[in-house]
Specification:
single chain; alpha+beta; FAD/NAD(P)-binding domain; Elongation Factor Tu (Ef-tu), domain 3; 3 domains; six-stranded antiparallel β-sheet; three-stranded antiparallel β-sheet; 12 helices; 14% strand; binds flavin-adenine dinucleotide
Length: 421
Amino acid sequence: MKPLRRTAAQTADTLAELVCSNSFRSDNPLNAIGLLHEELRALDSLIFRLADQHRVPAGDALAVDRELFSAAVEQHIRQHPRIEVVAGEVTELALDRPITTVVATGPLTSDALAAQLVTLTGQERLAFYDAIAPIVSAESVDMQQVFAASRWGKGGGDDYLNCPMDKAQYTAFVEAIVTAESLPLQDFEKGIRYFPGCQPIEVIAASGPKSLRFGPMKPTGLDDPRTGRWAYAVVQLRAENRHRTAFNLVGFQTKMRQAEQRRVLGMIPGLQEAEFLRYGSVHRNTFLDSPRLLDATMRLHTQPKLRFAGQITGVEGYVESTASGWWVAVALAAQLRDLPVEPPPASTALGALMLHVIDASVPDFQPSNLHFGLFAPLDEPQGDGPAKRRDKGQRKQAHADRARLDLAQWRARFASALACG
Ligand SMILES: Cc1cc2nc3c(=O)[nH]c(=O)nc-3n(C[C@H](O)[C@H](O)[C@H](O)COP(=O)(O)OP(=O)(O)OC[C@H]3O[C@@H](n4cnc5c(N)ncnc54)[C@H](O)[C@@H]3O)c2cc1C
């Protein structure tokens, strides 16, 4: 839309504007996002080539001079012989033309287009803000303190892990939540009316001392096998993926600062040593219920000429959106040449991220940054003698080693399609 119209987050008119931080986060491949950096470089991402050229010192993070970086992207796009840049707000997608359209309008997609997307996908399949609950790694949960059970034994009887609290623990926990420091709302986020069930926990806790106990911490129907009774209050953990390597804290979307989340949520029995793979957040964000709408190449099932890329598909952050754009472009290039498309394996950073977007096994889809909890689980370590569990550092190394191997093999198999990009 720029320069005719800006979103509330934009202050410049060039392309690829970094609207907030100038950091692409950790560049260390033992970090999930750093591993994605490495893969995008290996796949010759233009964004990463230019980011590296305009890098500024930032420890082990990749940070860029935002103006030089944005100007460089702008120059590349405008000089490309087969790209025409047309400024303007798209208020309606033309669906009757035999061309493919990629919609990449981001978290602040304009209202008119969002209205058409609602018509195309259904009201309940397009969200206007995300309400993200924190995710912890399965290994870091103290299983001695939690119990597996579903409410009233429904569904798979042990679908949830439950962290029970007594009255004293609950009272101290509520007090810690209401006094914790939260992130301020952006101007354009003020006035958000939360849907019931999506309120931040601090908003629920502030509405009354028992509110959480009658809300996300409801203990009813959850028999603790060690006592045979219901606890005073319960925090439920639900598997985040089919491999049960990561769990989200059900209903615990929050705007508490990250250090406060570690401190306050560390009071929950079983989570004292929790490793946070993703922190909770609540912000303005337009995104699709992609697992129910899109195929692996990000085509809309009901309108295959329409594809989506970037944050609107449910990835989150500059780097993840870059990765999404790369994949959609390459898959589209392959399909336009009638080449077979093979999605990247879930053992790679790119594959794990793209699978998250279409993983229909997760009922309540929420956008996500990349973290190791989205990767396919590691095999148990092999060797003589009793099997040893890997520590955190060893797990990260094992992820990086496997991802490198699998990305190289996938690239070799998919090389014809990549070359056509
Ligand atoms: C306030 C804020 C702060 C953020 N801070 C960070 C951060 O610090 N680090 C980080 O990694 N990520 C951050 N993000 C997320 C990051 O901005 C996104 O992940 C990323 O920009 C998404 O890329 P995208 O290409 O999908 O969408 P965008 O970068 O949003 O690009 C979409 C473009 O489409 C345009 N557009 C919208 N509607 C229409 C229309 N109808 N017609 C034509 N054009 C349209 C928009 O103007 C925009 O220029 C932040 C987001 C917001 C809103």
